[in-house]
């Protein structure tokens, strides 16, 4: 077997953690990110990728690419999801020692999170697994999971927090 040359990490050595988050996110994901943030002394960028957004990054115009990753308009449905996520984050991150931010992204979740991580020179990406059940299983079968896409295509470390059904 040939010797492998270690690759240079693409993220910043002290870059933030990029954490993918969804409405009704299981608390384990946010709490694991917070604990990791404290342990590594890294700020957090929580990111929600709007699932009904469409991809426009195939057009190479820089203004179109920017709009795909950073949507300018937020409709009522997105606003409700954002309000729910922010309420969850404010509760979970109360008293956090390090700063955190929240971003709304558009496009394919794995690509949007990867792009944000590159932009922010992140040190790691954190996502949760899907809740067990028929709906998530079918969705994963049809499109694959964001966690799987990230772990297959990322050069940054990706932490996948296992989520178990509550109840």
UniProtKB/TrEMBL annotation:
Residues 28-162 form the UspA domain. Pfam families: Usp (PF00582). SUPFAM superfamilies: Adenine nucleotide alpha hydrolases-like. CDD domains: USP-like. InterPro entries: Rossmann-like_a/b/a_fold, UspA. This is UspA domain-containing protein.
């Amino acid at each position: 077997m040939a010797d492998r040359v270690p690759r240079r990490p693409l993220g910043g050595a002290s870059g933030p953690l990029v954490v993918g988050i969804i409405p009704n996110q299981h608390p384990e994901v946010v709490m694991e990110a917070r604990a990791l943030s404290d342990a590594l002394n890294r700020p957090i960028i929580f990111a929600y990728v709007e699932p009904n957004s469409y991809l426009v990054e195939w057009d190479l115009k820089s203004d179109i690419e920017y709009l795909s990753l950073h949507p300018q308009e937020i409709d009522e449905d997105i606003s409700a999801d954002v309000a729910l996520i922010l309420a969850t984050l404010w509760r979970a991150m109360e008293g956090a020692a390090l700063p955190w931010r929240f971003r709304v992204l558009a496009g394919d979740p794995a690509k949007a999170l990867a792009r944000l991580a590159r932009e922010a020179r992140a040190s790691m990406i954190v996502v949760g697994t899907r809740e067990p059940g028929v709906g998530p299983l079918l969705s994963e079968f049809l499109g694959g999971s964001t966690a799987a896409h990230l772990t297959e295509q990322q050069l940054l470390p990706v932490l996948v927090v296992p989520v178990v059904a509550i109840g």
